[in-house]
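Here comes my example:
=====
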Amino acid sequence: MKPAFKQLLQIGIIVRDVDTSVKNFEEKLGMGPWEVSYMCNEGPCEDLKIDGKPFKGKVSKMAFLHRYGMEFELIEPIGDTPYKEWLDEHGPGIHHIAVVTEDQYDDVLAKYREEKGSEPWIRGQAMNNLMDFSYLDLREDLGLIVECYRNIAPGRPAIDYDPK
């Protein structure tokens, strides 16, 4: 079987407060600096869907750190979103891993739809149309949520990380 992904890209962590979490990572682990942004239906996430339906508004405040050949993502839920539901049900902690799927992206999504009978949990185009992303709820199958990425800008990396 051909692997469905070519790179482990990211660890996503749900937090109650991004600013406090960034400070804690910097002070307790020496991990920084972080880049803070928002996930919403306007740049960088222009085509955002939750449970297959278009979503308007802010979803989360986020912070990103590129280290050790991968990305760390802190997610503070905003409003009534699946991230908020997760935080209320499970508390803060690791939420997902992200993988780069490249040419298998459409096949992975088609197989997910066929097996689960539903759309990806969150799906969109992000990073100024440099990549597509989809969250697949594979907790029953693999024990985790997997976020799949596809680079849609040939010759440019989906995420440019500091390889230190």
About this structure: Residues 7-142 form a domain with the 2,3-Dihydroxybiphenyl 1,2-Dioxygenase; domain 1 fold (CATH 3.10.180.10).
